[in-house]
Amino acid sequence: MTEVASDSGERSAGDSKHQLRRMSLPRARKTRTSRRAAGNIGRPSPRRGPQRLQLCRRSGRFVLRFVFGQAWPGAMARTSPRWLVPLLAVTAEALAPTFDVVVVGGGAAGIFASIAAAREGAAVLCLEGGASLLRKVRISGGGRCNVMHDSATWDPRGARDLLKARYPRGATQLVGPLSSRFSPLETKAWFEAEGVTLKRESDGRVFPSTDDSATIIDALLSAADRAGVQLRTRVKVASAVRRDGGGFVVLGASGAEAGGGDGGPWTVETRSLLLATGSSSHHLAADLGHDILPLLPSLFSFRLSPGGMLDASLAGVSVADAELTLQLPPAPASAGEGSADSGSAPSPSKKRRRAGATNALSARGPLLVTHRGLSGPAALRLSSFGASELAAAGYRGQLQLNLAPGYTSAQALSALEACRTRPDARLKQASTLNPFGLPRRLWAAVVAAAAVDGGKRWDALANADLTRLQRATQTVPLAFSGKDSNKEEFVTAGGVAWAGVDARSMQSKLVPGLFFAGELLDVDGVTGGHNFQSCWTTGMVAGRAAHAHAQELRVQCAGE
Fold this sequence. Notes:
Blueprint: H1 34-39, E1 53-58, E2 61-66, H2 85-94, E3 99-104, H3 108-119, E4 124-127, H4 135-143, E5 148-149, H5 159-166, H6 171-181, H7 184-193, E6 198-200, E7 205-208, H8 213-227, E8 230-232, E9 236-242, E10 248-253, E11 265-275, H9 283-287, E12 292-298, E13 300-304, E14 318-328, E15 359-369, E16 373-375, H10 377-385, H11 387-392, E17 397-402, H12 409-420, H13 440-449, H14 463-474, E18 476-485, E19 491-496, E20 501-502, E21 507-508, E22 514-516, H15 530-559
Parallel strand pairs: 3-4, 3-11, 4-8, 11-22
Antiparallel strand pairs: 1-2, 5-7, 6-7, 9-10, 10-11, 12-19, 13-16, 13-18, 14-15, 14-17, 15-16, 17-18, 20-21
């Protein structure tokens, strides 16, 4: 057993005011405490959960300490006389408590699940291996936190089709939870009830009105604090073992590996175990018998090869509406669409592929030219739906860009012809006027790619010039040779296979009392707040179900 660093350390400037909340019991009174304190050794607080005890020797004297905390507060922090040591040791062992729910992972899903379970009355311990909680929440949306997507776009009657367009994987399994257990409408109400004012942007993304992710972090950690959730950072979970009669023993190491102490092992017992470790620590689920689907990057930008129409000189140029099509080598005979078990869903434009057929995926939306390639919602959506195909191709292939997806080729030619016949066409140069509303720098690149003299006046353009301009606008070939992360945000495709999980409760079909939430599962969404929504929904469902299971196990054990 080992002690974890106490509360006395200073918080870093970037930490939330709730970041390093430690597990500690209320300070004991200085008067008339001996009997009362001795009678409460090891008993769980109804709001804060139980404390496991440890007897350690310091400077030749014995002190009773928490496994996860500092010395016993108040009168009990005093060194114990030697004659009391055996009694305290026996009492601590006999009354070693068990948590109702232990949540592994202090991200969005883990914290939300902890709050959900604690509000139902469970004694909850949430363990985070890193130095800070809610790290992805902090960096999401460039530090503004795209907390969800516009709830007004949610329609439970069309949930299946809506989710297939938003979640490349996990769409089928989220239909029930999002429709009847915790919908975007309930998510909006939850955050507003916590004092967060939300605002909707034109593309449907929802942010706190402060444009500061700290608003969401403070709301979540304040809710966890009021619910009595015990939060611990720098605590590494190594494994979890099923306990005879139900429940789990969670084993890990803190200290040297986690920022203090001697790095010794520790254990904690729980009736329900909830894994919400995000894109890491899948071995915990695998060790308990669950299949893990290959982990692949999702939501990334494309790194373009040199020599194409778009280069670093156009960095920062954006288009409000563009269509990006991914063309990969011919699919092998065994290629097909996502399996039902994995919950993967093809892009709406994806066709069933035959052996030898061209693999093509398309995505439409805003597009941004970067110093190294293409980003923005259209590129990110394409990378998400094509995650497995892109990984198989080594993140190399061919893109085709349509800068005027609202026009057919005939309509685009007609629009170009209309420019040529304008009364002022003789005063306008080919590189300075375009009928598609494209940024001037981008249109100049289109004109150059079409091999049209940019200084030529519009009324002097030939039909062949218009045809080349139409093609250079709607069928732009772009080779790519790599990927880049989407700023500091990242999403992982793959994870715990849905075949072993009951989506109605997020409970394992293989191990009773084991629950999952968030990105650890094989679920990922496109950009726009959908990944956080899956965290809130699966976290709420799993947290409530974990509490219910703990209660059933408690009653069962009491009956025996």
